[in-house]
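Per your request, structure below.
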């Protein structure tokens, strides 16, 4: 049983002038992988470092399995941290990197070797113990960093943007491997990223952060399909956000109009590109600016009369050309007033 509880944690930097994390609370269940997702400066890495003991909260409580660890140093916590920079000792070979923490625990040499070899096999690096860190690729170094945390058998695994320095292909492969390992070990994990694809593909739940606070916590599919604020709608995936005004049950924006059964007033309409159908028409509600053919689908960039650009995903991009007039037909929409969701319809 490894449960992480974060209660009303706040972190203030620079003599009280920078509020990095603001009364943040989160419960991470046993074996769950929760992703902290947000832009730079949202407080996600600071929060992770407080869980790992590398930063001290200004206030609040952090417990693991009910034990208060808020003010314990990193080496006294049952956590393992994997950093973006790998943070490996370059003067040591792979075996010594992994064995270092176990030696501090004064384990017998035979047990250390057994644990190191087992974890190297787990991360796909069996037989690499004698290699020096400088002889490894970036992806292999990140596997060693993960193994170094796992060999200590932590209750909570902390991942701080571990794939950010890797190329796209390697990133995709490693995140699949890490997710497989996490599920195999059933280790409770808190994972920081600013990459939406990583969060959507790896997490059991996503915590969308902004300015040190929580915008939304939910399963990846719910965060994508039912964003609760305009910020979440615009941050997760690609979203068309159109500001306009509702009058007599219709949303209007410079020639573009759609039924919206809410009270009159300003509103922001949110439409995913895959939920926006197009129909050729002259003069139309907008004009095609660019057509990009990705093989499996096409993406059409459209200009509305006031210059606002929106995107639509189409199955036959060859049917559209730049300058063509089109009518926009949303199949699913969400609408916001201020930061509140006021309407949502599914496709």
């Amino acid at each position: 049983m490894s449960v992480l509880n974060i209660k009303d944690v706040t972190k203030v930097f620079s003599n009280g002038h920078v509020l990095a994390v603001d009364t943040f609370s989160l419960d991470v269940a046993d074996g769950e992988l929760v992703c902290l997702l947000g832009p730079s400066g949202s407080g996600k890495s600071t929060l992770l470092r407080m869980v790992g003991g590398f930063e001290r909260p200004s206030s609040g409580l952090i417990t693991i399995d009910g034990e208060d660890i808020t003010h314990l140093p990193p080496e006294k916590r049952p956590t393992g941290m994997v950093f973006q920079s790998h943070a490996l000792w370059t003067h040591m070979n792979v075996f010594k990197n992994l064995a270092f923490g176990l030696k501090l625990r004064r384990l017998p040499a035979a047990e250390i070797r057994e644990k190191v070899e087992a974890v190297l096999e787990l991360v796909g690096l069996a037989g690499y113990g004698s290699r020096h860190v400088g002889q490894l690729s970036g992806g292999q170094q990140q596997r060693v960093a993960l193994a170094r945390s796992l060999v200590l058998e932590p209750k909570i695994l902390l991942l701080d943007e571990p794939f950010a320095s890797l190329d796209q292909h390697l990133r995709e492969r490693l995140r699949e491997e890490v997710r497989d390992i996490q599920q195999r070990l059933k280790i409770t994990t808190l994972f920081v990223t600013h990459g939406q694809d990583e969060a959507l593909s790896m997490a059991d739940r996503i915590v969308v952060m902004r300015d040190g606070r929580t915008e939304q916590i939910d399963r990846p599919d719910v965060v994508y399909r039912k964003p609760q604020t305009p910020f979440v709608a615009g941050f997760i995936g690609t979203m068309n956000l159109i500001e306009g005004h509702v009058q007599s049950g219709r949303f209007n924006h410079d020639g573009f109009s759609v039924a919206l059964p809410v009270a009159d007033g300003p509103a922001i309409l949110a439409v995913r590109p895959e939920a926006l159908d197009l129909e050729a028409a002259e003069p139309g509600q907008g004009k095609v600016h660019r057509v990009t053919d990705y093989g499996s689908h096409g993406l059409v960039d459209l200009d509305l009369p006031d210059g606002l650009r929106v995107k639509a995903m189409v199955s036959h991009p060859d049917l559209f050309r730049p300058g063509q007039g089109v009518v926009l037909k949303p199949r699913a929409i969400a609408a916001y007033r201020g930061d509140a969701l006021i309407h949502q319809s599914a496709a």
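The chain has a mean pLDDT of 91.

Regards,
D.
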